[in-house]
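Response regulator
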Amino acid sequence: MNAINILVVEDEALVAAMIKEALSKTKYSVRAVAFNKASAEKYLATEPIDAALLDINLEGNFEGIEIGRLIRDHHHIPFLYITAHADDQTLHNAKLTQPSGYIVKPFTERDLLAGLEIALYNFHQRQSPLFRFDINQSTSQGTSI
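Predicted structure tokens:
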């Protein structure tokens, strides 16, 4: 099985290194680490990325949410936010980008791997024709899910 290529967008080098180390022991491969929005956009355009882990607060700005919006609108890959911010406004803004997951710092290696695994599974399940058919049929019949 080929490794799943992950883009890590994190402005704290130590946190990025810890994520890379944790993922290196698994089926995941950190394809690139971006420390800001510009480098994240470059990697998304030039590297084969299967999923992304995004810090929300990059260099004092909430650029991670902008990257999430970019991924949602122009790239067909799952992404998770990894952030210390869990206030109502940040959650609201993040939710609007439809992430596949949200992990609050500090987190354990197990939190990271479980969050990523569930997010990837759910993202791909939602892409299957059967899932789309079931959702459409349920809503057309007025059935709640």
